[in-house]
Amino acid sequence: MNFVVGLGNPGIQYQLSRHNAGFLVLDQLALQHDISIQQTLFDAHIGRGKIAGSPVLLAKPQTFMNLSGAAVRKLADYFRIDVAAITVLHDDLDLPFGTIRLKAGGGHAGHKGLISLIQHLGGTEFARVRFGIGRPFRKTMVEGYVLERFSEDELKSLSLLTRAAADAVTDIVSCGIQAAMDKHHGKKTFIEED
């Protein structure tokens, strides 16, 4: 079973914040594949269905970003899912807004949600769909910046970007991370290989 995790913070106040890009992409993926994310299990909202004929588990941890790994680990153990079968959708400060990149494994680059996942899963082999949010002017503004809503200009592109990211996830599930990276390499519609 493929396990797709969207990272974000629960609560209406964070719904359209930059840090919730993972939740937004997961919601779009669920919509495209008619998967309901209504069940709650191990501090996460989950949904089960199929993408390209393959069974998938979708999850939005409700533990807040910095503690995401605890819920993901419990779900992975319960459903007996290997770390390599997990795809994580998350915001990325190191990519400009409008950029989506696919990555197989790697570090955490200071992202607290990824730090939590790596600590709880005991490995870094999961695939990532990185949703670029850009950086604020000053490094000291990062914490406030990620929790702010997308700007009005960014909101105009958000639907297109979440659809593009969801399509990339579909390709990861249907043909694997490497083939998905090859397919989207150099694509002008916001998707590039890392």
Give your account of this protein's structure.
It is a single chain. By secondary structure, the protein is α/β, with parallel strands linked by helices. The protein has one domain (2-193): Rossmann fold (3-Layer(aba) Sandwich), CATH 3.40.50. It has helices at residues 21-32, 68-78, 112-121, 142-147, 152-175, 177-184; strands spanning 2-6, 39-41, 44-51, 54-61, 86-92, 100-104, 127-132, 191-193. The protein has an eight-stranded mixed beta sheet, with helices on both faces. Strand 3 (44-51) and strand 4 form a beta hairpin. The protein is globular, with a radius of gyration of 15 Å. It starts with a strand and ends with a strand. The model is unreliable at 189-194 (pLDDT under 50).
Radius of gyration: 15 Å
Looking at how many chains there are and whether they match, the oligomeric state comes to: single chain
Considering the protein shown, what is the CATH homologous superfamily? Peptidyl-tRNA hydrolase
Helix-strand sequence: EHEEEHEEHEHHHE
The overall average pLDDT, rounded, is 90
What fraction of residues sit in β-strands?
A: 15-25%
Biggest sheet layout: 8 strands, mixed
Low-confidence stretches: 189-194
CATH names the topology as Rossmann fold
Broad shape? globular
User: Helix coverage percent of residues?
Assistant: 25-40%
Which class of secondary structure composition applies to the elements?
A: alpha/beta
Strand order of the largest sheet: 2-3-4-1-5-7-6-8
